[in-house]
Amino acid sequence: MRFILAVLSVLLVGTLAQTESTEDPQLKALRIKEQQLTQRLLSDFPESENPLVLLGDFYQHRGQTDQALKVWQQVLEKNAQRADVYDRMAKVAFATDDYETSIRLWRTALQINPSLPNLNNNLARSLMQLGQYREAQQLLEKEILLSGDNAGNYLLLGAVHLELRQYEDGERCYQKMLELEPNNPHACYGLYQVYSRLKDREKAAAYLKQFQQGKSQWRETKKETVVRNLSQPDSEVNFYARCLAKLCSDACRLYQAKDDYQATEWLLKQSIELDPNSVAHRYALMSFHADAGHVQEALDECRIIKRLDPNNISCQLNLGLLAARLGQFEQAEKALHKAITMAPTQAAGYRELAQLYLRAKTKQLEARDLAAQAVKLQPAAPHYFLLGWACDVTGDRARAIEALQRAVALDPNNQAYQQVLQRITAEGKRP
């Protein structure tokens, strides 16, 4: 407790000094808010290092790297087993081109918690900067085993294979990237490099052209983002407010962990008050309301997100799901139809609309077709179960049994799947 109070005193004295030294009333208000939040976090969690970790994150976002490192070092003095803190400090070292320090810190993090996401990836990036490609290759292969298919990991591994002149392996990495992210310009450029070195001019030219087209589209998207951001002039006040909003959002997790829903909601609302155009913060508040059963409030928040980000497919799906929870069938149906139009190659819209029809006991033949399309796009156990349900209610027992058998085969420990399959099979044997 004495340690936390000492840290609190240092932080508050620094904040008060800053408050007195500035004349901007908006900045003064933000610094006072920062001071109050800092005091509350450290007071509410006196035995935990987590508030200090978040404060370090806040200073890092603000560009106060030295202050962030001091706070994180204090965390390690309290608990030297915080792999996540070593990871944070290593990222700072990497960003300043201090690769030796980043390697040392990431190795320490790996010794403490080898399952922490991206540690192998991060260490590999530093090793690549120093030309240590063999070890980087081993780390990236291990990261793929731990975290599954990820385009970023394959991009780095492909680059390592190129440096090691393992062109066929590099080709496999970049092709895997294209499976995960079709037309990814980085993958296309990687394949251009591979085929150039293999003297396959035709393929090299094809992927160079594909890269140039993809790069042009990327630049256009980036330009739109920049123009949109420039349309909302930034300032020190706005930047400070966004950083403080993220601190509020991050602090929510601490209060959620101890089931303090009142403080959680307050912090979520604070984050939006500070950064009203943040889709991420509004999405967090929407999810909080939905989980708490405040469905109308969640729907209202979802509509604001839709205005901020019209092409957000997840938001579009939630518009339908929340409307359905409120019994607004027509609005839900309309929203889910639009979700399918927005993302015709994703299974989610077909799945949710099929479930809407089945639960409402209407348009059951359409529900069966929708479920079949979900299976086609993503042959997962829940989708086969949904197809079995739809086939059952439309009287197609044979197809229902076949679909449910597939669901059970894919998820053999799911008792619900097994029970429904047993029921339908038993009903089929009755005279």
**Which CATH first-tier class of one domain would you pick?**
Mainly Alpha
Low-confidence stretches: 1-6, 12-22, 221-231
Could you state the order of secondary-structure elements as H and E?
HHHHHHHHHHHHHHHHHHHHHHH
Gross geometry = globular
Largest sheet composition? none
Distance between the termini: 74 Å
Q: Over all CA atoms, what is the radius of gyration?
A: 26 Å
Strand fraction equals under 5%
CATH superfamily placement of one domain = Tetratricopeptide repeat domain
Write down the CATH topology of one domain.
Serine Threonine Protein Phosphatase 5, Tetratricopeptide repeat
The number of helical elements comes to: 23
Structural class: mainly alpha
Secondary structure tally: strands: 0
- Helical content stands at over 70%
CATH architecture of one domain: Alpha Horseshoe
**Average pLDDT rating:** 89
Could you walk me through the main structural features you see in this protein, from its secondary elements to its overall organization?
The protein is mainly alpha-helical and 431 residues long. Among the domains are: 164 residues, Tetratricopeptide repeat domain (Serine Threonine Protein Phosphatase 5, Tetratricopeptide repeat, Alpha Horseshoe), CATH 1.25.40.10; 54 residues, Serine Threonine Protein Phosphatase 5, Tetratricopeptide repeat (Alpha Horseshoe). The protein has 23 helices and no strands. The longest helix has 30 residues. The termini are far apart.
